[in-house]
Amino acid sequence: MMVRSIATTSDPHGGSVPDDFKYRAFLSYSHADSGAAKRVHGSLEGFPIDKDLVGRVTPTGAVPGTLRPIFRDRQDFDAGASLGDKTIGALDDSAALILLASPHSARSHYVNEEVRLFRSRHPDRPVIPLIIEGKPGDPQDECFAPAVRFAVASDGAITESSNDVLAADLREQGDGFELAIAKVVARLIGLPPDDVYRRAERERRRQGRIRNTVAAVIAALAITGGVFFWQSHQQRATLAEVAALVDRYSLVNSAQARVPGARHSLAQAITAIAEGAATDPRYAEALELLKAGKAAEAEPLLKAVADDKASRAEKDAKDAAAAYRTLASIAAVSDTARAREYYAEAARLDPSDLEGMYRNGSFQKLAGHLDAAQAAFARVIAAAKPGVDDLQFVRAKNGIGDIEMLRGNLGAALADYQAAATFAERLVKSDPGNADLQRVLGISYVNIGYVQLAQGNLPAALASYQAALAIMDGLAKADPGSALAQRGLASSYSGIARVQLEQGDLPAALASWQAAIAIWDRLVTAVPGNVDLQNALADSYMRVGQVQLAQGSLPAALASYQAGEAITDRLAKADPGNADLQNGLVIAYFGIGDVQVVQGNLPAALATYQTAWAIIDRLAKSDPGAFEWQLNLSVAYSKLGDVFTKQSNREGALQNYRPALAIMERLAAADATDMRLRADIIEFNYDLAVNGDNSADRFAFVAAGLRKLKSERELTAEQGGWLAEAEKRLAEVQRP
């Protein structure tokens, strides 16, 4: 008899498995091995088959979503020497037989009969030995029954011909429990064991990280006081329960997803609720509602607790602040505005809690409250202790950079982002295995690339985005199930696509954005209720539309823009107070209008642009200091001017180009490093000049500006045309 270990890179054996089997497998074992059988049975039926594998056709049929049921009922034996009818029926109804090989099973008449009968009646179905004790071929410690060691004839007789046995070894000196189980699963579903094992390990590590986070939070709560179920089986049950809730709500919590550290914050909140449930019936009821998926209904109960503690804040402000942070984290699942209010109250009650202060700043930023956000981030930076609050420090520096970027201060934004990246690089160097640190470094590179792109430094921007892509790709490969890693990867592709578009490499830009869309689409399909993921998908559709428009593919471009607009409009109607979604609608309408202009449908384009103008005008008035909104308001005016120009409505054109130029000049005065603004100012002066508004002076300005721009970078084809036209007009004016 030759005994071979199941390889980890191949898929030997495995007959055809019809779809109508009652059991995925029959588990054969000795009564003396009942403990091991129970453990193996539970591990197999609960084995996490990767969802990407489900449905794949293999030699054993389509990969199932679960291995349930596996037959293990030991009550089906008759008292005599033969097998019971139910056991024989179960053997016939099983797609495979799994044998727990041990000296006990090797001596068991029943085990030998089960294997003999199964092999003789179903020679095309696999027998999968799993060694739990003993040594094959050792007379004193043999672990294989005769029906395993020797060939079985078609009439059921055990022959003297040695059988080649392929076995996994459950013991530590063998494969170890996890790998051995994965090998058995691989035989059952017809895939290479290595593939099954690696995917299962990634899922196990992901769940482990959740449980580690929850356990760390629980430990912290225990250290700071409070009666907690920290001993016995109740602790283990609570860990699993809280981990499941964290997993559930971190997937749908779109606002939290845009704030780094969201998973840890959610774990803190749900753990605090679980802890409080032991003494406060409101927390107990809230916990049950969360289990039922009713986060919005849990919120009033959590608010009642927070308000009660706030009324006693003079005695324990920190406790009240913690209650509001718990409330805010749950409220963010359904209402970002209320979450922002709760985080602000928590920060007021306890400004020393840096994570809470950071989250306050992040939610203020999401709402466009830039002054409040900047103050919160600055407080984090000032109070952060080296070696203790390093991650919060880097995140807050990036947050300050975001504020400067939103205000149009590119130089200041770049300095903040680079400071964050430099600090993060040192942290990653000292702790290279820390995924959180790698992720925040990748985010810093993305931010740097965004500023460099705005400044017209395309080679530097591309290098920054590629550095981010290398980090995010590594994180995604290490943990393909991580939504955060996939989001970072998609954002990196999007940044590279923007640079490629500016460089005029349209095919490359389209390919990069389509790679991003593929990722966002997978994430949205997995979690259809996540607003942030849908918003990212919508933005990517619109970016693809931009490339398709540049390529002249008008029907495709219009379809892409409309796909993005449909998603954004639905989201905006569900959350009318979300300024980001309103601004996204403006971008969608800009794109649709641009296609309509090229198609020659000027009335439709005018109506589309006017819709965009109405939205962005309202946003710009709500916060005159918000750079992006002011920029888009200027763009809206210019697009309206373009349509009026094409309609030969000179007065209408001038009424829109003038405010477009005034806004752009005001923005450029605040940051002379933004080459986009300089180019737009030149363009608007050209538009005014061709419409007869102080033409000589404006053409002179355009020619001088474009010559200077040409000395710094290559002009676009359109800009080259403007320069030629301006020089021609100037020559006509100066001709005697």
Search tags:
736 residues; Rossmann fold; Serine Threonine Protein Phosphatase 5, Tetratricopeptide repeat; 6-stranded parallel sheet; two-stranded antiparallel sheet; 31 helices; 10 strands; elongated
Kindly summarize this structure in a few lines.
By secondary structure, the chain is mostly helical. Among the domains are: 2-191, Rossmann fold, CATH 3.40.50; 201-350; 623-736, Alpha Horseshoe (Serine Threonine Protein Phosphatase 5, Tetratricopeptide repeat), CATH 1.25.40.10. A six-stranded parallel sheet has the order 1-10-7-6-2-5, sandwiched between helices. Strands 3-4 form a two-stranded antiparallel sheet.
Give the N-terminus to C-terminus distance in angstroms: 109 Å
Q: Strand tally, please?
A: 10
> How would a textbook summarize the main sheet?
6 strands, parallel
- The average pLDDT value, as a whole number, equals 83
**Protein structure class:** mainly alpha
Number of helices: 31
CATH class of one domain: Alpha Beta
Strand order of the largest sheet: 1-10-7-6-2-5
Radius of gyration: 33 Å
The portion of residues forming beta strands comes to 5-15%
The CATH topology of one domain comes to Rossmann fold
Q: What is the global morphology?
A: elongated
CATH superfamily of one domain, by name, is Toll/interleukin-1 receptor homology (TIR) domain
CATH architecture of one domain: 3-Layer(aba) Sandwich
Question: How much helix is in the residues?
Answer: 55-70%
